[in-house]
Amino acid sequence: MSDLLWEDVQVWFDLDLNGTLPDVHVPETTVEDWQALVDLVRSEGWQLAYLVDGDACPLPAAVEDMLSLREDAGVQLNVWPAPGVLAIFRLYEAERIDFDIDLRELQGQQQLDVFCRFLTTMGRRLRKSVLMTPEGLGNEPVLGYDVEADRVVLVTDG
C-alpha cells in the first residue's frame, strides 16, 4: 500500500506553485548520521556521483573527508535511488542533511511511491524525520517521513 496517494499530495508536486527543486532535509544530524547516509547509499547499491567543484571524484570512505572540503569547495553527492529519480545532497554542514529532488521526475503515483520508499529507507536508517518543504519557502514542511508512524505522511493541511 502507498504511504501517500497522488491525488492527496499532487498540489505539493506542482512545478508552477512549488518550484522544480523542493528542499528536503534531515534536521539535527551529526557526522555519524552523514556517515550512515553514505553507508546506506553504498549498501543499497544506488547509483551515485560524488562531485567536488563539479568534478567527479572517487567517494571517500570517511565522510569527514567530504565534510572537510565544504569550506573551500562545492561538495555534492548525487544519488539515484531509482532510474530517473535524482537526489542531490549538498554538504553544507554536519548538523543538517540537505538535498534537492527534481519534481519533474516525480509526477504520478508510481514515482511518488519511489520517493516515499527513498525517504522511508533514509529515515529508518537514521532514525530521524526526513522533511520536504517547497523550494525556497522556509522551514514549514509539507510532507515527510515520520519516525513514530514509520511512513511518509502529509504534515500540512495545505
Describe the protein's topology.
Elements: H1 6-9, H2 15-18, E1 23-26, H3 31-44, E2 47-52, E3 55-57, H4 63-67, E4 75-82, E5 85-93, E6 96-101, H5 109-126, E7 130-133, E8 143-146, E9 151-154
Antiparallel strand pairs: 1-6, 1-7, 2-3, 2-4, 4-5, 5-6, 7-8, 8-9
Structural commentary:
The chain is of the alpha+beta class. Helix content is 28%, strand content 30%. The chain has helices at 6-9, 15-18, 31-44, 63-67, 109-126, and strands spanning 23-26, 47-52, 55-57, 75-82, 85-93, 96-101, 130-133, 143-146, 151-154. It has a nine-stranded antiparallel beta sheet, with helices on one face. The mean pLDDT is 91.
User: What kind of sheet is the major sheet?
Assistant: 9 strands, antiparallel
Could you list the spans in which at least 5 consecutive residues all have pLDDT below 50?
none
- Rg from Cα: 15 Å
The tally of helices reads: 5
Distance N to C terminus? 23 Å
